[in-house]
Write a structure and sequence with these properties.
- It is a single chain.
- The chain has about 350 residues and is mostly helical.
- It has two domains: about 80 residues, no CATH class; about 220 residues, no CATH class.
- About 60% of the residues lie in helices and about 5% in strands.
- It has 14 helices and two strands; from the N terminus they run αββααααααααααααα.
- It has a two-stranded antiparallel sheet with strand order 1-2.
- The chain starts with a helix and ends with a helix.
């Protein structure tokens, strides 16, 4: 075993085993990922209505529900999904356009994961522009309200990523809060080398892992899914697989704290303490602070796409957000128009 793994015996004792499924009744499957989005939309509705009631948003309180519903569909879902397909499939050398053409219906299977936060933000950017024209309200004023509450949705989304055990962090030897993520056995080169040994270890404590009820050998994909199921219910399976996993940063929680809680606290405080702040100020701060927090957090997150030079795709896309931030801040400074 490598030195990193041996250090992990001391520090990284927690093997991630949370179940992505919150409730399953017959053919109905309720996932934490979907509940996270629902929680973000509900929280966004109440927060926007609160701001509208206190004249700190350009919309009326009774319009908050229609706005958040339309933003969820046209901005978050469509923007987030198309952003993922574009940024992490079509433009990724490991996948490319051919991967999308081979399974075009996969674009619509959002329950399998694959939502890009940058795509969602871009989708909301476009959506608010169109919505403001139709409602004849200030685009920057409309966006300021949305940007204040958006971090709540980002927080719920990152928590869902953690529950799913996806988008985990880089190897973190010597970090006492490091964790081990079984999904790495499938999609990370370091742990993939240990897949065979991990299968043998888990099969010793999980009957039927290698063969079905008819004695037929299972495929690697079936065995891997069996390992995941076993780790969620069996302490023995988690103990067996632990030596073959690397201790990693729980980067999902870092991002939840920075892009979610901290960003919301900053923007909400400014909105409430300075209700007459110039329109566009909060939008500019959202773009700028999100970009800074994301670029910083990406240092601890295992890249989920090909690097662009020496930086991750998330850092590359966030750098463009700094330009949007500067544009909105300059506009707010020059206009001085209160919200």
């Amino acid at each position: 075993m490598s030195r990193i793994v041996s250090v992990g015996f001391v520090f990284a004792t927690y093997v991630h085993h949370l179940d992505p499924v919150a409730l399953k009744v017959g053919i109905l499957t309720l996932r934490w990922y979907g509940l996270a989005y629902l929680g973000g939309f509900v929280a966004g509705f109440y927060l926007l209505r609160y701001l509208a009631q206190r004249k700190m948003w350009v919309m009326k309180p009774e319009e908050a529900g229609d706005f958040i519903a339309a933003a969820a569909l046209f901005g978050v879902f469509i923007g987030g999904r198309l952003g993922y397909v574009l940024f992490y499939q079509i433009l990724d050398p490991k996948h490319g356009l051919s991967s999308v053409l081979a399974d075009p219906l996969g674009i619509f299977r959002v329950w399998e994961g694959g939502m890009a936060s940058h795509g969602g933000i871009l989708g909301l950017f476009i959506f608010t522009w169109v919505y403001s024209r139709r409602k004849k309200v200030s685009w920057t004023g409309l966006g300021d309200g949305l940007c204040v509450v958006a971090p709540v949705g980002l927080f719920f989304g990152r928590i869902a990523n953690f529950i799913n055990g996806e988008l985990y962090g880089r190897v973190a030897p010597g970090i006492s809060w490091a964790m081990k993520f079984p999904l790495a056995l499938r999609d990370n080169k370091i742990e993939e080398e240990n897949f065979g040994a991990a299968v043998r270890a888990v099969s010793d404590v999980v009957p039927g892992l290698l063969e079905d009820s008819n004695g037929n050998l299972r495929s690697d994909a079936e065995i891997f899914n069996g390992i995941l199921e076993a780790t969620r219910s069996s302490p023995e399976a988690r103990k067996a697989i632990e030596p073959f996993l690397e201790p990693r940063h729980p980067s999902q929680l870092y991002e939840a704290a920075l892009e979610g809680l901290l960003l919301f606290a900053i923007l909400w405080t400014i909105r409430v303490r300075f209700p007459k702040a110039p329109e566009g100020l909060l939008t500019g701060l959202f773009f700028g602070l999100y970009a800074v927090f994301r670029i910083f957090a990406e240092q601890f997150r295992e890249p989920d796409a090909a690097l662009i030079g020496a930086i991750t795709k998330g850092q590359f896309l966030s750098a463009f957000m700094l330009l949007f931030s500067a544009a909105f801040l300059v506009k707010a400074y020059r206009s001085g128009k209160p919200a």
